[in-house]
Amino acid sequence: VERVRIDQSGNVGIGTTGPGARFDVRGESTADGTSIAFFRRSDAQNSIVINNAATATLGGAQVLDVGASSGGVSAVFNGNVGIGTTGPGATLDVRNSASTDVLQVKSTFAGQLNAIFDGGTDRNVALQLRENGTNRWQMFLNAAGGTNRLEFQSDDSLPKVTFQQDGNVGIGTTGPTAKLSVSGNITLGSGAAQSNKALCWTS
């Protein structure tokens, strides 16, 4: 049984007698759970590099690097995954310099589409909105001690609006005791607020 074929153009085929590329590997059915190929190294160098540029400048210890001469790069680096960067600084680091959407999640399923952020037991979860690395607003799940409050915080990390699981909403307070609890003055209308008045109706 033929295992390897090198054709007249120099293409190498494994599992095929008609390789269609410089290196063409084809497997049979994967029902037996076997993989087509393993690439392993004992040092901290790149295991697989896929790049269509004439030369590639890579950081060390990438497991998989997929690049293009136009600048699109993805890399797996020490367990982190980078899209648009070869130096991901988080578990998933997505960067984009173009005026296109950075992230799109779409489903053709007729049911509910879920995006889940799970911090674990009694652990807070924050979704931060930043400007050039500076946190401006964040949606914050305050789960410590089982409080499970949803807070909207500004750049000082202090809650501005709080939602409790019982449906109470607090503005200026993290412990609303009514459907709407406000700590501070309230102005209704388009006129200027007046000092020393808890509730002011202006026009």
Helix-strand layout with pairing:
Blueprint: E1 4-6, E2 12-14, E3 23-25, E4 48-51, E5 62-67, E6 73-77, E7 80-83, E8 92-94, E9 125-131, E10 134-142, E11 149-153, E12 159-163, E13 169-171, E14 180-182, E15 186-188, E16 199-201
Percent strand equals: 25-35%
Mean pLDDT: 81
What is the count of DSSP helices, taking H or I runs of 4+ residues? 0
Query: Going across the major beta sheet, what is the strand order?
Result: 9-10-11-12-13-14
Q: What structural category characterises the helix and strand content?
A: mainly beta
| Global geometry | elongated
Helix content: under 10%
Radius of gyration: 28 Å
Biggest β-sheet: count, sense, barrel? 6 strands, mixed
H-E order = EEEEEEEEEEEEEEEE
Poorly predicted runs of 5 or more residues: none
**N-to-C terminal Cα separation, in Å?**
91 Å
Counted beta strands = 16
What brief labels describe this structure?
6-stranded mixed β-sheet; mainly beta; 5-stranded mixed β-sheet; 203 residues
Textual characterization of the structure:
This protein is 0% helix and 34% strand. By secondary structure, the chain is an all-beta fold. A 6-stranded mixed β-sheet has the order 9-10-11-12-13-14, with no helix packed on it. It has a 5-stranded mixed β-sheet with strand order 4-5-6-7-8, with no helix packed on it. A 3-stranded mixed β-sheet has the order 1-2-3, with no helix packed on it. Strand 11 (149-153) and strand 12 (159-163) form a beta hairpin. The protein is elongated. The model has no long low-confidence stretch (mean pLDDT 81).
